[in-house]
Each structure stands twice: as C-alpha cells, then as structure tokens.
Amino acid sequence: xxxxxxxxxxxxxxxxxxxxxxxxxxxxxxxxxxxxxxxxxxxxxxxxxxxxxxxxxxxxxxxxxxxxxxxxxxxxxxxxxxxxxxxxxxxxxxxxxxxxxxxxxxxxxxxxxxxxxxxxxxxxxxxxxxxxxxxxxxxxxxxxxxxxxxxxxxxxxxxxxxxxxxxxxxxxxxxxxxxxxxxxxxxxxxxxxxxxxxxxxxxxxxxxxxxxxxxxxxxxxxxxxxxxxxxxxxxxxxxxxxxxxxxxxxxxxxxxxxxxxxxxxxxxxxxxxxxxxxxxxxxxxxxxxxxxxxxxxxxxxxxxxxxxxxxxxxxxxxxxxxxxx
Length: 325
What we know:
This protein is an all-alpha fold and 325 residues long. It has helices spanning 19-50, 55-92, 98-129, 135-142, 147-176, 180-206, 217-250, 263-269; strands spanning 5-7, 259-261. It has one domain.
C-alpha cells in the first residue's frame, strides 16, 4: 500500500515571481479606474448636450464628447500595455499566452474604434467651425457620424472580451499555482462580465447611440440606468480583484499550494542527522510485511508469590510447623 502526503510544491517554473505581469495587472486596474472616471465625464457631456440652446453651447458639448473619448482611449491603451508586459513573464513561466494575446487584440481593437470615433467627431467640428465651409461640406462630413454607432458597438464588444481574457489569464495562473480562492473569484467575475456584455450590446442595439431613442423613452431611460448601474458594479468588483491579483502574482508563495508526493522521496531527501545528535533506532520491518498490521503481544503477568514469614527457630525446617513453612 502506497501512502500519499500533501506537501508545498516548489516548482520553480510556476511558483516564481512574475513582477512584469504584476505591473501589467496594475496598469489594467488603472484602465478600469479611468473607465469609472469617464462615467463622470459622460454625465457632464450629457447635461451640456441636453441644455445646449445655441450653436456655441452645442459645440461646447461636442468638445466634452472629445474629452470623453480621450479618457476612454487612455484606459484601453493602459490595458493594452499592461497585457503586453505579461507576455515575457508568461513565456518564462512556461504558461500558455493565448489568453493574453486575445486580451491584447481586444484592447487594440477597442482603442482603434475609439480613435476612429474621435477622428470623425474632430473632423466634423473642424469643418463646422470653418467659416469657409459650405453646407455641402458640412453634410458630407456629417455622413461620417453614422459610423459612430458601429464603432461604439465594436468598442464595447472588444473591450469586454479583453477584460474576460484578462480574468481567464489570471485564472490560468491561479490554477497553475493551486490558488483556489483566486481561481474561483476569477470564474465568478467572468460570469458577471458576460452578463454585462449581453446587457450592453442589447442597450447599444436598441436605445444606444444612433438608435433614435426607441419607441418608449421611459423604457430607454430605465434600460440606461439599469445597464449603467450594473456596469459600475462590475468595474468596482474588477478593480478590487485586480489589486489582489497583482499582489498574489508578485508573491505566489503567500497562498497555500500542495502537490502529491511519494513518501520514499521524503525519506531520500531527509537531512542526515549530526553525529552528536542522539539517534533513536527502530526495528526494521521487511518490505513484504510493511503494510501488514503490527500485533503487539503483551507478556503474561503472573502473580508474585506471597512473602514467607521468617521463623524464629533455627533448627531443621522439618521441625517448623506446617502452617509456618
């Protein structure tokens, strides 16, 4: 019978520190913080757009749209760079890099979609503010604004796919290091982001940018508040998760890890006792009977004979009375 023990695994290929990957996760966390910051910019942008009554106020609202896009671009670029930093450490630790590559592609597409939206809006503002532009020029540039809805949908889709790939990469690292709590938390957040992706795409295709507001504005407002609230909740959870993940990626030995070992290897790797140490020897047991139960037979206990009374006579023992013998 072979007995198994669980001892900490010290696999240098996996349990090593990954400082660049930890810095990359911190950059992704910074991008998530910027995404939360752009929510405040979008509120100001919406208020200025709703309260615009003159052309100057309308162009001022458009400038806030540009600020909104700049913050989004900074967030996705930070996430892109953060995942690029993870590639050398994953290759050094011999962990598959396909999830990191998916995240890189997703954030790159999101950055390009945001840059295209900023380019289209900037071109429209430039032509509209040019006194030499004709009405035909303004209408020609305004046709490019129709692509903003497609760009927003592509950006949201690629952005959430990149976040899901980041979580799956962290889960892959946690599985390789037996970090069960980190693995389960990454799986739970992945499910939350999938729900966020479905809700965001539904809103973009029904009540989002360029959809006309839908048939029922009240329902559209309710959908916007619901999707926005859930979006904030997911990003707050994600920011906290990335902070913990960056710490444990840089210090993987702070979480328990176990592996299946053979007792023979433990005896072989045991340190040799010093000559001055007191050795305790044990009887050797044949290998064929190592797994058999050990039966200990206690020695038979017999009552000790009662002490005999000493006789005061010094003669022959036969002269001693019988009851005194």
